[in-house]
Structure prediction request, 598 residues.
Amino acid sequence: MKLANRYIRLREQYPHIAEQQPHLVHLDELAAVLGCTHRNVVLLLKKMQSEAWLDWLPKRGRGQKSALTFYKPAEDLILSIAQDLVERKDLRGALEQLNVSSPEGSLKDSFHRWLAGYFGYSSEMLGSKRFDTLRFPLTQSLLSLDPAMTNFRTEAHLVHQLFDPLVRYNRLTQTIEPHIAHAWEVNEARTVWTFHLRKGIQFHHGRELTADDVTYTFERLKRLATGALYGWVHRHIDSVEAADPITVRIRLSEPCELLPQYAGTNRASIVPAELCEELGDRFALAPVGTGPFKLTHLDASMCVLDAFPAYFQGRAHLDRVELWHIPDMQVQGSERTLESFQIIHNYRLPDEASETWQQVQQPGATCRFLTFNLLKQGPLSDPALRGAVCAALNRRKLLERIGGDAIYTADSFIGHGHGSTGQEAEPLAHETDRIRALLKRAAYDGQRLTLCTITHYEPDALHVQALLQEAGFSVEIKLLSVEEFKSEQRLHADLLLFSIMLDNDAELRLIDLYKSMQRHLEPAVKAKVAALTEEALRESSSSRRSALLQAIEAHLTAKQVLHFLYFKRLKTIYHESVKGISLDALDWVQFKNIWFKP
Prediction:
C-alpha cells in the first residue's frame, strides 16, 4: 500500500509525460518528490520496477540524468487500491484513498460502477458449507440501533432484525400474534395485562431471556419516555412486575386498548437488563437482542449482521447481511444496477426488465403534511389566511416538482389506501390571482412566515416555500435536528412540516401525532382533540377507534390547522432468483426469510 501510494505521488508529479515515454530526471529531483534519501529512492524505484509499474535506467556519474519510463497509469493503481480496501471490508479507507489521490469525479464514478457490482447476493464454499451473503448500500449513516432511541426508517428496520418484542402485529389478519410471549390475558376491568413468555429464548450473548428483562425494558422506556415516540403510553402504566421467571404483569391506571400494539412495536423490543445497564449510551452502537441476526461489526462505513443460529423462530437462510454506508452513491444511475442487485428499494423497474424482475408495493406509506402553530401570535391566527396557505399549496404542482412513481396526493391519514388502486385524491386547484385575492381579503401585507422542519426534509420545505412565494407569501425556512424538533424550538415557527409513517403502528402513530399537535393548538381545538384521543384509547373496537381518529382529522382540517401534502410508498423489486420475500411492518424486506436459487 505504501509503495503504491509513493508511485501515485511520483506519477502525479509528471502528468505531462505519457506512459511508455522515457523521461530524463535527476536523482535529486526524485528524492525531493518522494521525501527520502538517494539510497531509499533507488530501493523504491527497484521495487516499483519489479511490479512492472515503471522502468528506471540509472546512469553513472554525479549530475547525470537517468531515464524514467512510466507504465502504470496512476488512476488504475488508485482504483486497484480502493478495490483491495473494499475486499478487506475497509470502505472508509477506500473512499479516503479516492478523496486524497483523485479529487476528480471520473475516477470516483468508475469506482462506484465497480462497487455496484460488488453489492447484491454472493455465495462461496467454506469447507463443506455454503456461505450466503447479501450486501446493501446505505446513503444514510446509522446513529443508533437501540430500540428506544431510533429515529429513522433504516435504523428501525435493522432493529427489527436484531430484536424481538413481546408480540407481533399481523397486517394481513389485523390481529396481535404471539412472539416472545406465547399467550396473554386481560382482566375484566382491562387494567391488568398478563403476558406468558416462551422458555429458552436466547440473547445474542448467550443468556436466556427472563421476565426481569421485560420489566427492565418497560421501566427503561418509561425513564426515556419524555419526547419519545409513543412515550405517552407510559402515563397509563402504573407498574410492570415479574410474577415469576416467565410471567409479566402490566398494571394500568386506566384502560389503554393500544397497549398490546405498543408491546409489539420495535420501540418496545426486549433488551438484556445487565448488558444494557453496563453499556449505557454505548448500547446504541453495540446492541444485543434476541433477533434472527446479531450485530458483529459497526463503524462509519459498514454494518455487518450475522445469522443467529439459536433464534427461537428458526435460523435465517442467509449467513450474513452487510450494509455499506456510501452517501454519494447513485445506484440508479449505474448501468449494472439490475445485474448487481438482487433486491432494490425505491427503484423504478424498466419495462424491458419486467420478465425477470418482480415488484411489491405495500399499503404502508409515509405522509408529508403541514400544520400551523396557533400558539404564536401572527397573521396565521386568522383562519382565512390559513386557508390561503392551503390553497397556495397545490398538491398536483407539488407532486410534479418532486417527481417519482411512488408518490401520490394525500387528503387523509385514515383513507390513504386509495393510492394503491391508482386513484388519487383530487388536489385543491386555485389560480394564483384567486389566492392573491384571498391574501388581500385577509389583510396580509407581506409579514415573514417561518417554516420549520428537520434537516432531512429540506427538499420538501424548499418546494413548499417556492409555492407559497409564488402565491405572494414571504417565507423563510428553519431547519432543526430531530431532537431539536421534538423540543420547544419548533414552537417559534409559524408553519411546521413533518411526516408520519402509516405502517403496522398507524393507530399508535396517529395518537402520537395528535398528542404532539396539542402543544401548538388553540385551547378550544386542543380540548376537542384531547377528548377524542382519550376516548379512542379506551375503545376496544378497532372500527370505532378508526372512526374517532377520523373525527380528529376532520376537526383539524375544518379548523384549517392541518394540511396534507403527499404520500410516499416504499416499493421493492427483486429478481426471480430471490425466494422467501416477505415485508415487515416498515415495508422493508425481512432478511430472515430470504434465500437464493442459483
Notes: Residues 147-330+577-596 form a domain with the D-Maltodextrin-Binding Protein; domain 2 fold (CATH 3.40.190.10). The chain is about 35% helix and 25% strand.
